[in-house]
Structure to design on (489 residues):
């Protein structure tokens, strides 16, 4: 019996498209999901950042009206992406025992828009107008819980919260549960929809966001010497993972293997990465070790690089330590911004598609590489290259580090 | 207020909150067993009914309103 873990289904809704295929095609075509924010609060609060990566397809266009009104936007995107992944995997209620099915969906922030809207109602018209659904809509385990109930998953429903590493951590958690024999199939990923005045204001005050308001599509530019911060995005990425023997027994198509995972913590600072990249390097090294991969096997790293001045270069230091100077890098946030708790999951999907199609998308807006980066970073056009294995990095405020090592099949 | 008027108004609320087709909201239907409405949605329906019909529906009364007909009768009797 093969104890390898494979990916059999993918789903996503992102600033580039309402599904995986549209998102992937838009990335390869060099499109940007970033645009000017036209919300009233942007001018009312005089925010220095007036751009964001909004969803390409509104969840309310996809979900039935009554279902949509019972879900926070963060839960809506998780439901949309999970249904796509489930269908893509060719699963139905008869193909997996509910007691062997788990759901793990992380989020960085949870139902921020519900919290804000319901607080407005409490402070204004008062208690009677506060929705009885407030708590299930704002709780950060809401996305996982709703998907778990819909699929009748009974092997466990979990919601890792580790800021911008949450989505990747969900996938790492799934790997460990499957390896431990606690489930046969797991629906895992991340969801985020927290574009609001207070989150934008907080990130602006931390001086982490781009203020290139005049050129929205050029604002997110990882590894470029002229980068000035990240662009906030929203969306969800979900994958179906299962043991290889289970997938083969039901004749499922297999995108790639999740060969190994690594997690670590910096123990250093609440927002800044350890400048030596030691924690990040340990996560990557652990992913290789658990995946029984040599550094030479890793042809590509799909980077976390958010387009901030410090983080992007530090990540390449960690990659040099753990793998070397040979992997070809790309940073998807140039295309669709920073999806926070969904970022790691959507970017894991991008990594899987790079392995499947033997192509690495370009880092959008990378025009002049930061001289601190020694690696070959794909810029301009996508790069055709045969890959045996690739690593996807995700790091979060708090010093959370997650590395996922995928292998081609 | 006439029973028919209350039923029609209540059915609008149930359709808005729970997505049940207005024609399916008839007096003999149980909110929970027939219309699949959970306790959270019942709170929303009660608050909207209070506003629409100018009645008070205390929580202990709400617990007794098992069917659409129960709610219509309560609202009809208590409308000021």
């Amino acid at each position: 019996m093969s104890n390898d873990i494979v990916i059999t289904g993918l789903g996503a809704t992102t600033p580039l498209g309402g599904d995986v295929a549209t998102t992937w095609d838009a990335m390869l075509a060099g499109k940007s999901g970033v645009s000017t924010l036209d919300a009233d609060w942007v001018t009312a609060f005089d925010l220095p950042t007036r751009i964001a990566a909004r969803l390409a397809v509104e969840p309310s266009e996809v979900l039935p009206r009554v279902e949509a009104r019972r879900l926070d936007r963060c839960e809506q995107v998780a439901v949309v992406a999970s249904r796509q992944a489930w269908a893509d995997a060719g699963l139905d209620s008869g193909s997996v025992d509910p007691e062997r099915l788990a759901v793990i969906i992380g989020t960085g922030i949870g139902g921020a828009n519900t919290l804000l809207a319901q607080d407005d109602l409490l402070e204004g018209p008062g208690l009677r107008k506060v929705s009885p659904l407030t708590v299930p809509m704002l709780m950060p385990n809401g996305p996982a819980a709703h998907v778990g109930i819909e699929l009748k998953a009974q092997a466990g429903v979990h919601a890792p919260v580790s800021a911008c590493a949450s989505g990747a951590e969900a996938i790492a958690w799934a790997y460990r549960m499957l390896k431990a024999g606690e489930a046969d199939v797991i629906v895992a990923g991340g969801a985020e929809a927290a574009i609001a005045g207070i989150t934008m204001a907080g990130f602006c005050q931390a001086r982490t966001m781009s203020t290139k308001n005049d050129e929205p599509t050029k604002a997110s530019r990882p590894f470029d010497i002229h980068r000035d911060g990240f662009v906030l995005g929203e969306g969800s990425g979900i994958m179906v993972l299962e043991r290889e023997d289970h997938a083969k027994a039901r004749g499922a198509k297999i995108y790639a293997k999740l060969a190994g995972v690594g997690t670590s913590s910096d123990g250093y600072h609440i927002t800044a990465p350890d400048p030596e990249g030691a924690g990040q390097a340990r996560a990557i090294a652990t992913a290789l070790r658990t995946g029984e991969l040599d550094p030479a096997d890793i042809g590509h790293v799909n980077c976390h690089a958010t387009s901030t001045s410090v983080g992007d270069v530090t990540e390449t230091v960690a990659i040099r330590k753990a793998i070397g100077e040979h992997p070809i890098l790309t940073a998807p946030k140039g295309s669709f911004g920073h999806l926070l708790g969904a970022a790691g999951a959507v970017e894991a999907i991008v990594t899987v598609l790079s392995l499947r199609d033997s192509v690495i998308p370009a880092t959008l807006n990378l025009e002049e590489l930061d001289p601190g980066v020694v690696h070959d970073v794909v810029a301009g056009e996508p790069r055709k290259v045969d890959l045996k294995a690739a690593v996807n990095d995700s790091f979060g405020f708090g010093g959370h580090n997650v590395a996922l090592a995928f292998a081609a099949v | 207020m006439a029973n028919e008027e209350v039923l029609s108004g209540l059915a609008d609320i149930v359709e808005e909150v729970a997505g049940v087709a207005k024609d399916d909201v008839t007096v003999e239907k149980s909110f929970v067993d027939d219309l699949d409405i959970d306790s959270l949605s019942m709170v929303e329906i009660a608050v909207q009914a209070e506003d629409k019909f100018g009645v008070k529906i205390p929580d202990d009364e709400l617990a007794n309103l098992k069917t659409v007909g129960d709610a219509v009768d309560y609202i009809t009797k208590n409308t000021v």
Notes: DSSP finds 15 helices and 14 strands in chain A.
